[in-house]
Amino acid sequence: MTFSTRIPSYRKVYETIRKHIQDELYKPGTLLPSENDLCTLYNVTRPTVRKALDALVNEGFIKKHQGKGSIVTGVPKGIGILSITGTTSAIGKENLKTKIIVKPEVRNWSFAFTFSLSEFEKELGCIYMERLRYVNNKPVFYDITMIPNLNLPRFTSRSFENKSLFDILRKHYQIEIKGGEQQILALRADKKLQEYFGVHKGHPVLQLNRRMETNRLNFFVYSQVFCNTDEYVLYGRF
Amino acid sequence: MTFSTRIPSYRKVYETIRKHIQDELYKPGTLLPSENDLCTLYNVTRPTVRKALDALVNEGFIKKHQGKGSIVTGVPKGIGILSITGTTSAIGKENLKTKIIVKPEVRNWSFAFTFSLSEFEKELGCIYMERLRYVNNKPVFYDITMIPNLNLPRFTSRSFENKSLFDILRKHYQIEIKGGEQQILALRADKKLQEYFGVHKGHPVLQLNRRMETNRLNFFVYSQVFCNTDEYVLYGRF
DNA sequence: TAAATTAACTTGTATATACAATTAGAAAAT
DNA sequence: ATTTTCTAATTGTATATACAAGTTAATTTA
Question: Is B184 touching A (CB cutoff 8 A)?
């Protein structure tokens, strides 16, 4: 089986501009080059440029104003936790440290959260890992991630200490998170969470159950995230 | 000042198809008419139809499969609470009752949540209301809504008992929520929440602080929502 | 000087067209 | 009967073009 690596040009334009915003080549508050400029810059036509910009608008990187131009809003903060990808992008890598509680290992699905698994997924088993994540050296996130054990060579031997799981899935396995569904609830910290977060009995904690869809059909990533929102609330755009 | 009520045709196509999905004229699991069929149906060209479908894909009403067609997924459940609009669409109107705690009234901004207000907003004052919302006769949501007091005739005299605030803003004032930002945290129920939700001291409750952007420049709707997630968790797609 | 007009530039909408890539089913070959 | 091949239909990508609508700044006019 060969992968068609053909990348559409609107995608290239999108990736390039996005990268420039992330690298602050295009700074927040400034105007993006006009659509026509981008056309000549990337040698494509306006509908193509506009398709790229549409995606950037949807994801909150830019805002458009008719007659004026496209204003860079910068990398959307907190886009991660409430929309896509992981917690890394929600905080910014500078302040985030990760401690592996359970290294990635193959095991049976210990529990299916609230999402029902397909027979196929059940048979495969899953790669299971637990991480505790610190923001400014305070434990804020505790997350369990479960991925169907489907042909991810070398996956369990990779280091996840300071990398985003989703970056690894994307770069090494061409797996991209496309969207998903999640549940959010508030609950009291149980024994384990009390220990991890260093809080007292009954402390309110936020829980997210997430099922993430990928660009591979029927391949889902499951995670359960607990957050101590005492100092750091979850922030997101919608 | 006159409003240009010109509605683009891709928008009409979008609204019509969306309505048909909501009314189950297009049933979940079935195929939408092909893009070319929709073209002749609405007398527009394919890019126009595709723009409408793009929006429906983004909002989770349909899924597209190259070579196959567009499959109706139905009205996205829970899209409301974690993305756009209010709580109404998250649950379905059947089971949702609303009790007005504080009728819409003009007052000063009692507090600015965690969002900072512009000078303009401060001067205007706000329309303030509090509602308690029941799902299957159990109180689940308690929300405070604050809207800048900007020329919304008859607004305070309207009934919000069983209507969505956002439906009213849209239908009567042509104000549409375009997106926004929110914070989510877990906290202990205070006296008021204990009373409203009928829970004990220290009960974990979910809190959302939201600032919603509209199609009117610099017009934001603010709300603070408290949820008892004991029986009904917040559900959302992303 | 101040106001009104104009022009240039920007994004928004829409059409018409062409070909690529994928799917599903029919037709043909084995 | 089974497999392979082909064909039609469908969505994906891309170009070229035109005009509408909003913004800004220069120009003209009073």
Answer: yes
